[in-house]
Task: inverse folding
């Protein structure tokens, strides 16, 4: 029972990161109809921005690193939107996929050129401390990562539901032509959405870097395909649906790792994906029409 | 056979990649890009490898078996995705490929995570040329056949094609099976050159390479995939002098092509539109009769 609860907690923590990255995919895909394959690499850039900031500014390192992560990832997201995603909006979905994939190659190998292809240590922004919660034991870093992810998820949810730009983004996702006819500044809303999603991913990346104590130019690959799967299984209509699926995927993975074998965990995700898409082609909670 | 010495591997991989790209081109002719190309190639590779290594089957029958298996898997994929819409279909093929990769990873009989090894070198330049010639012939004949024309009709407008009496589902199964067969064959040939097949070779990122060939070269005619595969196989090798910048340049070139030439390098100029470039006319103009008819209709508009 203790192993079970422990693995559920571990699953929730990994799932929260999947959720944050998956939301970036979902926003880009629903609002711009772009499969934003560079998103996990923007996440990676945020991680390194936080790393540099934490090394340069030792006092108040944590908040400054988080801020740097948001700014760094946001800037790259802005540049990506201006140069590649924006001009390709409305093109065939595979064209945009290849375009963002090209960007992903450039970002990964560009960063590998700067920091080297091997993982580098991430500065310890939080003390190594264990906390007992009933039968499970968590580290302070795990707990902080989880809480921060929940905060980010709430932030995205609030952005989509409560702000003017978020409402406009949902309108564009539903019917871009009608939204434009009603006076929504489509290009600007798209830009804001991408920059916002990038900044959120950047913050999450710094938190993940702190959690594992290492950063690598290829960290995006770990999260990219899984987060993408979450978005597809859930469908991109509801932010909360994507989050729920990400948590479930994290827990299932952790349980499979704990009870079966770690090599089977990837199989679980894709078997679920094919099953769900066969029964419900637009995802469990529905998608915007593409 | 001729020898290219140092460049021989590059030539062989170029030939193999062009064959794969042609297989994917046939699959894509009915309008649906399969994202499981590498997985089907892997099925062909694993099957032919198991046949030659564990059962002592000669090379040629093993390749034929791999071709059949590729066709079967391709057809199955089309049946599985028959009801699905455009984008979801592509992603299901993606997940299908990943699932096969994971299956190979956990199946100890075919080597599991340690990859399948022990294959003997059977493939040379000649084998690749023959395989490519076969693929070229099939693609060329299919392009001009009734089925090929029907496939393009389905690609351009499935609804209108169905209204003309074309069975969209049947056509998709045919294109997926035929393309899958060629990819399976190429996979078997490739396996007997690389001599090792690992589960990651079946994964999404390898499949994506083949899709990039098509999108880069353009997928409206069979020359697009050929040009794309040749350029993008040779390019990374040609960029070796750039050392660690090589992949970055590769990425930038892909972005540039997608931005400036979204339909790919080779485009089909539709009938009725002719373009003059450096004094040469490209594309068929309208026939004199059509032009005369249009001239009659024009004032009425």
Result:
């Amino acid at each position: 029972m203790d192993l079970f609860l422990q693995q559920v907690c571990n699953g929730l923590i990994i799932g929260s990161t999947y959720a944050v990255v998956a939301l970036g995919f979902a926003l880009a895909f629903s609002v711009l109809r772009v499969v934003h394959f560079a998103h996990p690499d923007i996440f990676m850039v945020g991680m390194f921005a936080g790393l540099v900031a934490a090394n340069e500014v030792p006092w108040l390192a944590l908040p400054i690193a988080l801020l740097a992560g948001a700014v760094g990832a946001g800037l790259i997201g802005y540049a990506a939107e201006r140069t590649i995603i924006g001009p390709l909006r409305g093109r065939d979905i595979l064209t945009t996929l290849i375009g963002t994939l090209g960007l992903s190659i450039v970002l990964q190998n560009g960063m590998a050129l700067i920091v080297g292809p091997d993982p580098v240590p991430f500065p310890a922004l939080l003390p190594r401390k264990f906390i007992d919660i009933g039968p499970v034991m968590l580290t302070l870093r795990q707990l902080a990562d989880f809480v921060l992810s929940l905060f980010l998820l709430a932030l995205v949810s609030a952005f989509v539901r409560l702000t003017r730009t978020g409402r406009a983004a949902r309108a564009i996702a539903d019917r871009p032509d009608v939204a434009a006819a009603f006076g929504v500044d489509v290009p600007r809303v798209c830009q804001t959405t991408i920059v916002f999603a990038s900044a959120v991913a950047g913050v999450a990346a710094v938190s993940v870097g702190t959690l594992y104590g290492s950063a690598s130019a290829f960290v995006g690959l770990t999260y990219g395909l899984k987060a993408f799967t979450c978005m597809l299984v859930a469908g991109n209509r509801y932010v909360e649906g994507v989050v729920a699926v990400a948590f479930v995927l994290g827990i299932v993975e952790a349980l499979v790792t704990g009870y079966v074998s770690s090599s089977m965990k990837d199989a679980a995700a894709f078997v679920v994906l094919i099953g769900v898409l066969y029964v419900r082609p637009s995802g469990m909670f529905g998608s915007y029409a593409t | 056979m001729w020898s290219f010495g140092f460049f021989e591997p590059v030539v062989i991989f170029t030939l193999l990649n062009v064959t794969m790209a042609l297989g994917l081109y046939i699959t894509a002719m009915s309008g649906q890009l399969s994202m499981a190309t590498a997985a089907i190639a892997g099925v062909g590779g694993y099957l032919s490898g198991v046949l030659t290594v564990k059962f002592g089957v000669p090379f040629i029958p093993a390749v034929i078996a791999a071709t059949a298996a590729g066709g079967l898997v391709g057809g199955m994929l089309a049946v599985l995705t028959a009801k699905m819409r455009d984008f979801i279909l592509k992603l299901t093929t993606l997940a299908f490929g990943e699932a096969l990769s994971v299956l190979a990873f956990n199946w100890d009989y075919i080597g599991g995570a340690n990859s399948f090894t022990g294959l003997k070198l059977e493939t040379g330049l000649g084998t690749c040329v023959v395989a490519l010639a076969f693929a070229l012939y099939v693609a060329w004949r299919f392009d001009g056949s009734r089925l090929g024309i029907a496939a393009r009709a389905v690609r351009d407008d499935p609804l209108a094609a169905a209204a003309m009496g074309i069975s969209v589902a049947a056509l998709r199964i045919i294109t997926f099976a035929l393309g899958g067969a060629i990819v399976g064959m190429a996979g078997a040939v490739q396996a007997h050159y690389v001599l090792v097949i690992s589960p990651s070779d079946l994964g999404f990122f390898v499949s994506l390479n083949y899709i990039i060939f098509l999108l880069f070269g353009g997928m409206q005619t069979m020359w697009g995939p050929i040009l794309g595969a040749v350029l993008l196989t040779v390019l990374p090798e040609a960029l070796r002098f750039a050392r660690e910048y090589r992949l970055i340049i590769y990425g930038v070139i892909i972005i540039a092509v997608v931005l400036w030439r979204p339909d790919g390098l080779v485009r089909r100029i539709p009938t009725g539109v002719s373009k003059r470039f450096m004094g040469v006319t490209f594309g068929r103009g309208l026939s004199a009769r059509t032009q005369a008819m249009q001239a009659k209709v024009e004032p009425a508009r």
Remarks:
- Chain A touches chain B through 36 residues (CB under 8 Å).
- The longest helix of chain A spans residues 2-32.
- Residues 15-220 of chain A form one domain.
